Batch of 2 targets.
Target 1
Amino acid sequence: MGEQRQRYNEEFKKQTVKFIQEQTKSLGDLAEELNIPKSTLHQWMSQFRELKNEPAASVDRVRELEAELKEMRRQLQEKDHQLTDAQEELAIVKKAVHIFSKPRN
């Protein structure tokens, strides 16, 4: 017969994820220590992960922050282009208003 599946309550899962986030060991090493399958820990991490509990030196956290920074830079560059376009359009409208507001002789 197969092994009996171990069931864990939500609080245990949250505490385990928090513990994992505070460690510098790999997830595989922690899975072995805790005697919980690595895939199960991955599921828990995706469910209960809180970035504020992770050290900044975490490779995943650094990658996530770099990706966020890259996206924000892209958005800022896009906004700069929009602002430049709007300023050019405004300059054209001002010239048009000036030209069309002159009295005809």
Note: The two ends are 103 Å apart (CA to CA).
Target 2
Amino acid sequence: MFFSADSYQKKNLSSVVIDYIKEMILVGVYKESDHVLESEVANKLGISRAPVREGMRQLEKEGILTTIPRKGTYVTRYTLDDIKEVFDIRLLLENNILDIIINENKMTEEDFDKLNNIVNEMVKVVRSSEDPIKKAMKINMNDIEFHRFIWQKSGSKRRVEILEGIFFQLRMAMLYDTNKTGNLLVTATDHYEIIKHLRNNDLEKSKKALKEHIISYKEGDF
């Protein structure tokens, strides 16, 4: 089956819609349980409602939006159980990735320098005078950048694909949790422990440091 030029253009526009709504969630314009109006998004982007509808359907499949019959479409509200489930999946896969990283000696000194720079930036953000919400968002993005770098270094395509598949849900869960706990310095400096044990090729301590870091998110003060 071949796509027509019209369907191809519509598909591209739906991707724009997906990116736009995700960005609006991450910057806090759309918050959990907010009503996302098809007409409003179409007007904002200057496009018809058809690709907006298509993009919103895709976001619903990804668990980012939730449609309630006869009421409308809303930003998915993550419960504590939802957040714990996302982090459980993450911990399982990242432990596998640590096995690969250490057993196959995948990291170089240059890689450790890269990770240290990311954490240094996180600490710098924590100590800045920025608005607390903006701080949380930046820490969230740096945190994901740190772990995503390690995922990619493993060379485990399927594990990375699964983690990338829950990537945005993970960011939403992390942002929600960081905003609630407010302990950004701990969130940032936890990563130094992970780097130290990875550099020493200590698998057990690397996994322990990762678990403690993730549990500090999962068991925040909700």
Note: The first strand starts at residue 65 and ends at 68.
